[in-house]
């Protein structure tokens, strides 16, 4: 790897880590995207894959049943490295995937197509990808759907991070945001839902939406001395009780209702 490429990858990883999404819980908005993409692309597997230095982590997955894999097993890493859409029609005929253990064995991955998850300032974070157990090609419409949905994923990730930063407003800023919305009835409804949370769920919601700390379930788990899987469970319960489908929406309603003023 050249020095220029290495510096670029360091900057890319810094951008990825700055989103504070790695190891966060499942969210319906991303699950809907992967399910719909898999259906339209007629693929048994669809992943929102974020590529780190030593692993790829899945914000959402359909059909693979894993949270992450080692970087050596990541086909998405090849897409990120070339900074472009990647389609491998037969993994057993392509030198980049020929020795990948996921493309070997009794049920090997034989097809891969991945659209880059690209930030507004151009950094490739990973891919929205579909995989199949047989060699094939995507149709032009399926390629377009993959690309459009990849853009939707990235915008949702960036929206969530922007809202996390917004949580750092001072008290005056919060008052201005609340006052400008003039949604007393909405606030009362949100506060009524908020009161249904358990003390532990309230703690977790405060860490998610009450300050500018990381959204990482592992970091929240360490702070509360519980496992990240337990945090995932509480996240799901919180979003159900608060009637939201994503962390971005959760932060938005918390801000509007001034829950942690």
Structure, described:
Residues 1-5 and 169-181 have low confidence and may be disordered. This protein has 261 residues and is an alpha+beta fold. The longest helix is centred in the middle third of the chain and has 27 residues, at 140-166. The chain has a six-stranded antiparallel beta sheet with strand order 3-2-1-6-5-4, sandwiched between helices. The protein folds into two domains: 3-158, GAF domain (Beta-Lactamase), CATH 3.30.450.40; 170-256, Orthogonal Bundle (Arc Repressor Mutant, subunit A). It is built from ten helices and six strands; from the N terminus they run ααβββαβββααααααα. α4 runs parallel beside α10 and α8 packs across α9 (228-241). It has helices spanning 3-18, 28-40, 76-82, 140-166, 171-181, 184-194, 199-209, 217-224, 228-241, 247-256; strands spanning 45-51, 55-62, 68-70, 86-88, 111-118, 124-132. The radius of gyration is 20 Å and the shape is elongated.
Mean pLDDT: 86
Order of helices and strands: HHEEEHEEEHHHHHHH
Task: Say what the CATH topology of the largest domain is.
Answer: Beta-Lactamase
Report Rg.
20 Å
Question: How does CATH name the architecture of the largest domain?
Answer: 2-Layer Sandwich
- Number of domains in the coordinates? 2
| Level-1 CATH class name of the largest domain | Alpha Beta
Q: Could you give the order of strands across the largest sheet?
A: 3-2-1-6-5-4
- CATH homology superfamily of the largest domain: GAF domain
Overall, the morphology is elongated
Largest sheet: 6 strands, antiparallel
Summed up, the helix count is 10
**How many strand units?**
6
What are the low-pLDDT stretches, counting only 5+ consecutive residues below 50?
Answer: 1-5, 169-181
* Share of β-strand residues: 5-15%
Question: What structural category characterises the helix and strand content?
Answer: alpha+beta
Distance between the termini: 49 Å
């Amino acid at each position: 790897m050249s020095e220029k490429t290495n510096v670029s990858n360091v900057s890319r990883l810094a951008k990825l880590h700055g989103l504070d999404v790695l190891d966060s819980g499942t969210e319906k908005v991303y699950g809907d995207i992967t399910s719909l993409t898999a259906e339209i692309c007629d693929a048994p597997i669809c992943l929102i894959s974020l590529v780190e230095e030593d692993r790829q982590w899945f914000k959402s997955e359909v059909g693979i049943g894993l949270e992450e894999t080692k970087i050596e097993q990541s086909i998405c890493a090849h897409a990120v490295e070339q900074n472009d859409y990647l389609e491998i029609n037969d993994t057993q005929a392509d030198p980049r995937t020929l020795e990948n253990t996921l493309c070997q064995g009794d049920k090997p991955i034989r097809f891969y197509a991945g659209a880059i998850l690209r930030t507004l300032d151009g950094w490739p974070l990973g891919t929205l990808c579909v995989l199949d157990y047989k060699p094939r090609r995507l149709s032009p419409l399926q390629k377009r759907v993959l690309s459009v949905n990849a853009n939707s994923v990235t915008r949702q990730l960036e929206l969530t991070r922007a809202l996390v930063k917004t949580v750092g407003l001072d008290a005056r800023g919060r008052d201005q945001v609340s006052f400008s919305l003039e949604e007393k009835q909405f606030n009362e409804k949100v506060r009524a839902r908020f009161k249904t949370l358990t003390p532990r769920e309230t703690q977790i919601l405060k860490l998610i939406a009450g300050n500018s700390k990381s959204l990482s379930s592992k970091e929240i788990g360490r702070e509360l001395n519980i496992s990240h899987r337990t945090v995932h469970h509480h996240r799901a319960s919180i979003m159900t009780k608060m009637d939201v489908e994503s962390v971005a929406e959760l932060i938005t309603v918390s801000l509007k209702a001034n829950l942690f003023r």
